[in-house]
Each structure stands twice: as C-alpha cells, then as structure tokens.
Amino acid sequence: METQKIISELQYKAVRSSGAGGQNVNKVSSKVVLTFDLNASNALTEEEKERIKLKLASRLTSEDILILNCDEDRSQLKNKSIVTKRFLELIKNALVIQKIRKATKIPKSVIRKRIKDKKNVSEIKQNRRKPNHD
C-alpha cells in the first residue's frame, strides 16, 4: 500500500456543518467529506481491493465508493487531516491478514490428570453417602 499514491486519489468536499454553532455555522463550510473510489484506484492491487471490499462491505456504497466525513473541529484544515488519518487507519486495518488459528493437541498427561481429578472428586462424594446396611 502506497500511502502517498492513495492520498493523491482521495477527493475532498467542504460542506456546511450541521447542528449548533450560531451564525458561524451558516457561513463557514468546515465539515469535510472524503470520497474514495475503490475500483478506480491505481495505488491498490486487485487482491488488496478484494480484501477491502470484504472487510469494509458495510461502509462501501453499491459502486464501491467509501465515504467518510468529519465535523469535529471548527477548522476545515483540521477536519481534513482528521478524516485523512481516519481513512488511512481504516484501510490499513482492512488490509491486515489475520493469522490462521492452529488447533493445539491436548497432551495425554493433561487428559490423565483431568480423569484422575474426576475420580478423586467422585470418591470423596461416595464417602459422604450414608452406608447401605442391607
């Protein structure tokens, strides 16, 4: 994954932020919307694209476009850097290949110990019973 190449493919759009903020919110476009077209990307290999499609399926549109937005700060520049960091982290996590879990074999000594302990507990409970005088 080439970070600089991916960043050059991102598209940003400044939008007016919603919610409280007084008159400033009506004048300033501080919210930043980031869009990334996965299919048109040249920075990612086909294998990486497929992995991202699988892991981020719920976040992608039907045309495989990833849309992220940020309106945390009043500064458009800060929001742009925040959303870019968020995007890179998301892509990096999506490209991580999880290790295949190998089932370990239970050692025979552990099995013997468990059965011995079970017999011991059973014996203790047998000794607690009232004696049978038939």
Brief rundown of the structure:
The chain is α+β, with helices and mostly antiparallel strands.
Written description of the protein model:
With 134 residues, the chain is of the alpha+beta class. The longest helix is centred in the C-terminal third of the chain and has 21 residues, at 108-128. Strands 1-2-3 form a 3-stranded antiparallel β-sheet, with helices on one face. It has a domain at 3-94: Double Stranded RNA Binding Domain. It has helices at residues 3-9, 24-27, 46-55, 76-94, 108-128; strands at 11-15, 31-37, 65-70.
What is the first-to-last residue Cα distance?
82 Å
Helical fraction equals 40-55%
Q: What percentage of amino acids are in beta strands?
A: 5-15%
Shape category? elongated
Secondary-structure arrangement, i.e. CATH architecture of the domain at 3-94: 2-Layer Sandwich
CATH class of the domain at 3-94: Alpha Beta
Strand element count: 3
Summary tags:
alpha+beta; 3-stranded antiparallel sheet; 134 residues; Double Stranded RNA Binding Domain; 5 helices
Which helices and strands appear, and what pairs or packs with what?
Elements: H1 3-9, E1 11-15, H2 24-27, E2 31-37, H3 46-55, E3 65-70, H4 76-94, H5 108-128
Antiparallel strand pairs: 1-2, 2-3
